[in-house]
Amino acid sequence: METQTVAATSAGFASQHELLRAARHLAGRTIAELVHGLDCELPAEPVRNKGYVGRIVERALGLSASPLSAADFETLGVELKTLPVSVASRPRESTFVCYVALSSLVETPWEASRVAYKLARVLFVPIESEPHLTLAERRVGSAFLWSPTREQSALLQADYAEIAGRAASGELETLDARVGRVLQLRPKAAHGAVRVRASDGEGLPSMAQPRAFYLRAGFTAEVLRAALRED
Amino acid sequence: METQTVAATSAGFASQHELLRAARHLAGRTIAELVHGLDCELPAEPVRNKGYVGRIVERALGLSASPLSAADFETLGVELKTLPVSVASRPRESTFVCYVALSSLVETPWEASRVAYKLARVLFVPIESEPHLTLAERRVGSAFLWSPTREQSALLQADYAEIAGRAASGELETLDARVGRVLQLRPKAAHGAVRVRASDGEGLPSMAQPRAFYLRAGFTAEVLRAALRED
DNA sequence: CAGGATCCACTATTGGATCCCG
DNA sequence: CGGGATCCAATAGTGGATCCTG
After folding, report:
1. Cα B12 from chain centroid?
2. DSSP string, B65-127
3. pLDDT tens readout for residues A154-172
4. Is A191 left (phi over 0), alpha (psi -120 to 50) or beta?
5. N or C: which end of chain B has fewer CB within 10 A?
6. Measured from the CB, is B178 under 7 Å from any atom of strand D?
7. Within 10 Å of residue A142's Cβ, how many Cβ atoms?
């Protein structure tokens, strides 16, 4: 049975290439088909189930809840990201990268940052996600491995520096999601009132909105176009 | 009197450089000040007086209604365009270039087109035009002469070809203002029901909406940035 | 709470319509 | 009707908020 083939590949991958092949094996399948071999429920509607597709693809590729398979991806040095795309292969959303504390931003250069580490190597799995499609109907596209080109890396680093600079000088008023040409900082929490421990400009304890790095849709659009040209 | 200085330069210019100097002489003045030396009325509000600033600047530079001074600009080979800009020097609007008949588009290559001719050399006069400013309060910026760079020319030509191609193949449904990265085609008339004589795909007579070429605001923004870097 | 993400009200952009003059 | 342009309702874009899971 087709879906069992997917399950069979789910144990550890020896290389990034092997992982890519497994991901490409999913191309053309609907989410319903992925779920079929995975013993899990399929919610009817996308809304209120935001991370669902991402988790299904993780599982279809063997990244289960177990620490062991999570370690596979860790060992391979690959970050897995589903990318919701329109029929015209245009990303419909920005891409979450990771949380970050403003204080760590100030201390950490781009090269040593978690965002740079996560973006060093990404397996993008496009998902055709027109709003009118149910989760079940959404279809997996052709996955690809990406690392930033020299130009892209320069853009990311410049945005990081701009964001870190504003954090350092305490210009929190002007440090919103509009900053950054390709990388941006946005609130990320269950709701807007959530606060976490932080330190203010002078290192004194304070409470702050949790924030995370995101890639702008325009940037992943460029990444996707380049990948399509490769094919 | 200062405004007489302006009037004194209004007779024919010997060169583009002389014209540019006269235009730069207007920098920093308000429209009220320009009008002061010109014997004409100043409407209170911008709305319902759309071409007013353009005509005032023309007159301040000696392009009166008389065919003679119009010929000055013609002889110099310069097109005069005011450019409404925000305080951040961002163009607030697209820029009208000229009317065009779809039939002529099909026959005329870029090099021989009126739009290419008009864009070959332009004197842009930025006007600070925040919506809350009355006409009188709007201020003239630093004028500059522009000709398309090689890259800009390639973009313009490619857009022209794209537009002409759709006109040729009769794809009028897809030939709207969205076509063209920097150059676009838009309806231009007193109102949407205006029609002019035209010919259809087979050369048969028909009625069509008058259309004109415009430069997108994003393009003139780039032109303006380059000019500001020069200064 | 970190990580898988998308939602959606609001803002920014702009395509088509329009205004005045000669 | 061509040329000087801007207006503004509708659409596109996105910043901040939010949802579910382990």
Report:
1. 21
2. SSHHHHHHHHHHT-EEEEEEE-TTS-B-S-EEEEEE-HHHHHH--GGG-HHHHHHTSEEEEEE
3. 999 999 999 999 999 988 8
4. beta
5. C
6. no
7. 16
Residue nearest to nucleotide C4 (CA to C1'): A51
Averaged over A66-78, what is the pLDDT? 71
- Host H or E run for residue A178: none
Contact (Cβ atoms closer than 8 angstroms) between residue A111 and residue A131: no
Higher pLDDT, A40 or B222: B222
Among candidates B52, B53, B94, which has minimal Cα distance to B182?
B94
Q: Which residues of B78-106 are buried (b: 16+ CB within 10 A; e: fewer)?
A: bbbbbbbbeeebebeebbbbeebbbbebb
CB B193 within 8 A of CB B215: no
pLDDT at B14: 83
CA of A210 to C1' of D15 (A): 15
Q: Which nt has its C1' nearest the CA of A189?
A: D18
Assess whether A188 (CB) lies less than 7 A from strand D.
Answer: yes
- CA A100 → C1' C9, Å? 26
Per-residue pLDDT tens over the stretch A197-228: 988 767 788 899 999 999 999 999 999 999 99
For residue B39, give every residue at least 6 positions away whose Cβ sits within 8 Å of its Cβ, in sequence order, or none.
none
State the first-to-last Cα distance of chain A, in angstroms, to the nearest integer.
Answer: 28
Q: Which nucleotides of C are covered by protein (CB under 7 A)?
A: 1-8, 14-22
The pLDDT assigned to A65 comes to 52
Percent share of chain A, pLDDT over 70 = 91
Q: What is the pTM of this model?
A: 0.87
**Beta pairing, strands B144-146 & B122-128:** antiparallel
Calpha distance A209→A176 (Å, rounded): 12
Scanning every strand, the nucleotide with its C1' closest to B96's CA turns out to be D5
Residue B67 approaches strand D within 7 Å at CB: no
DSSP H or E segment with residue B40: none
Burial class from Cβ neighbours inside 10 Å (0-12, 13-18, 19+) for residue A229 reads exposed
- Residues B133-174 have pLDDT tens digits of 999 999 999 999 999 999 999 999 999 999 999 999 988 889
Is any atom of strand D within 7 angstroms of residue A118's beta carbon? no
Mean pLDDT of chain B: 89
